[in-house]
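Researcher: Re-running this chain for the archive, since the previous output was lost when a drive failed. Same request as before.
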Amino acid sequence: MTEAAVKFGVVNKCGLLMPTKNRQDICLRQLIFYALEKSPHPIYISDASDAPMSEAQQRLLTSLTDVLDIYYFYDNDLNNVEAIEFLINECKENYCAYIGDDDYLIPTGISRAIEYLIENESVRIVSGESWLLESDLLDQSNRISFKHISPYFVADRVEQDVMDRLRAHAMEYWVTLFGVHRTREFKEDWLHNTKMKSRYFTELMPNFIGVSRGAAVVLRQPFLIRKNHHGRAGYVSPLKRMHDDNWMAGLGMGLSVLGDSLIERGVNKSNAADLAFEVFETYFSRWVGKHYVQPQRYRILETSLNRVKRIYVRLTLWITSKTHFGEQSHRIGDYFGNLSYSLTVPIESERNLENLRDRIKSTCQ
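Model: Regenerated structure tokens:
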């Protein structure tokens, strides 16, 4: 166990659950970021890639285990949903958060989210301020070219009435999976997902189920950096998925599971199915309006790789002027500095690997 992990203690650590497939370089780059951030939070990786890591990748992973608590599992028979269920069951911590292999959770934000959950038993999910990093894959090494950065929408779901929460979430949906959860509750929210054949509903269902069972709170705390690029695996628009038989089966099962959750929350059994349908109808109506009546996008920052260092100062100034992070404000630039380094440093050669090891070692001393 690392020194940082010992300092935080078992009860205050969060298991980060990361499934990955055929993007081991991208996965390792996220680990580099956590090493540079001195993260105390254990990382559980389920790797379903067609082939095991190369020797160079394995050496880097071994180096990172000196400063991070990493639990690595290789099983190429697991799909993404099965991998997440497997990692939930492996997680030893009382708290957990799902993270894509190309997204980044900010460790200090995770720790603050845990504190909030400890202090507020009625809250089920805690997230924080988030950003979407638009980027393109540069080459086969999966290095990233930055395009622009924008806020990633998150919002409180604290309405007392369960249907008020669900209606609000359907109207302005965001992925609560990335928030910090109590592990036992996240396991409950994920319970039916391995039986769901529609991949699209395997994201929707635990989000809506979680919100139906408790409040979701967004802290004024840097928390998540999501990446959006052409290398995102398996994305198909919801409208195209509607022509798939699995989509219709997913909707049927989703209505049943959400209806049961509403009944558990005290909703009349005769009304539960209609109310569950209302939630999905609202969500899909909103989705069509959002993506086919295109709103003008607000571009906050545009940069290219040869100007990437400017991102730190400009982004810090913008975020500090728009938010109230207090002592955290001066760290915003560091987050994106470490993120940029983890994304762009070449990791293919032994010499680069040694330089990377030295930087991580000096950072974590």
